[in-house]
Amino acid sequence: MRDSIRVRWTIVPLTAPQPWLVCSGCGGLKPFQASGKTRLNANGRKLDAWLIYKCLACEKTWNRSIFERRNVRDMDPVVLDALQSNDPQWIRREAFNLDALRRSSPRIDEFPEVGIAREVQHEPPDWTKLEIELIVPLPTSTRLDRLLASELGVSRSRLQALHDGGTLRTNPDRADILRRRLKTGTQVTLDLVTEAGRETFAHRQRSLVFGSG
Ligand SMILES: [Zn+2]
Question: Is 155 helix (H, G, I), strand (E, B) or coil?
Answer without folding.
Answer: coil
